[in-house]
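Methods — Computational structure assignment.
A single polypeptide chain was analysed. Its primary sequence is given first, followed by the predicted tertiary structure written as C-alpha cells.
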Amino acid sequence: MITMPTGFKSDHLLRLPASRRSGPEGDTVITTFNTENLLYLPDNNLARPGDNRNFFTPERIETKLTKLALAIRLELRRPEIMILQEVGGISILQELGRRVNAVSGTNYVATSFKTSDRRGLEVGFLWDSSRVELLEAAQLSGPEVEAAFGPSSPSPGREPIVGVFKIRGQRITIIGNHFKSMLGNEAFAGLLDDELSARITEAQRKDQARVVRRFVNSLLDHDPEALVMVAGDFNDTQFGQRNENEEADYPLAILEGRAGEVPLTDLITLKTDAESDFTFIHNETAAQMLDHILVSPALLKLFVAVDILHFNAGFPPELSDDPHTTRRSSDHDPVEGRFNFQSRR
C-alpha cells in the first residue's frame, strides 16, 4: 500500500497529483491504462456474480468519467497516445477524450472495435491528433485469434487492437491487449480459489501470447528495424505466476521471444526500484505487476524512461466515489513509457 506523506491533511492530499516520475521526459509519451469498467449501462445479466456494487448507474458513470478525465490531465499529463482497456465502446471513449479536450487544448480522438467479451469490454486507443497521426487501425482476426480470444476460445474475451501511428515522422505499430483474467471463466466465479483459477486460465493466456507474438514476428521478419510496441493488461507478471512452470513458458516470456525471434524488451524490467513494481493489488493485499509495455529493438533505442503512475491500486476503493480526486479512478495503475523520437531522424 502507498503510505500517505505526513504534514498534510488528507482532503488536501487527495487533490494533489500522486504520480512520481524518474528519468528524462523525452519528446513522446505512450501510456497503457486499464480504466476498470468504463461502460454505459449494460444489460442487468452482465453483472459479475457476487458483485454487490452497481458500477453502471448514470451517477457512477458520470463520476467515473470525471475522475478519469482529471487523471489524464493531472496524473498522466496528457500523453500523446493512450492504450486503454475495459472501455465500453468508442462512444464512451470519445466522450472521455472530449472532456479532456474541453479544458486542455488537446484534440484526443478515439478508436476501438467490438470484441467477444460478454460484458462488452474493448481495448481502444485515445491519441492527440494535434501531435500524432493514426495511419490505420484494425483488430487482429483469423482462426487463431478466434481460438485464443474469440467465440471458439475457452472463455471469449478481448481481441487485440492494432494501430499504426506516425510520430515525428516515424511509423510505429502498437498492439493493444487485454489478456484473460486470472480469476477464471465467469462460470466459476466465486467457486474456485485464486490459484486454481489462475491454472484454468493459464493455458488461454499462453495461447493469446502466442497469437500476438506470431503477429509481431510477421512485422519484424519483414523489417527487423520496425518500431513495434506490445502493451496492455496481460493479467500476468514479468516472472510468471507461482503456478506456472520455470521454463520461460509464461505469457510475458512468450511475448519477449524465443531463440531465433527478434526480442521484445519489457520496459518494466529496466526499472531499478522494484518495490514499486505493481499495477494492481488483489484483495487489497497481494501486489501484482499485470500491465506492461514491450518494445522492439529499434524502439528500445528511442526509450528514455518508464514509470508506474501510482494513484489507484494503493488507495482505498471507497475513493472511487469521490469525483474531486484522481485517486482510485480505476483499480489499476497506468504504465508510462517515454521516448525520444527526435533522435531517430
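Note: Helices lie at 10-13, 58-74, 90-104, 143-148, 194-222, 251-256, 297-300.
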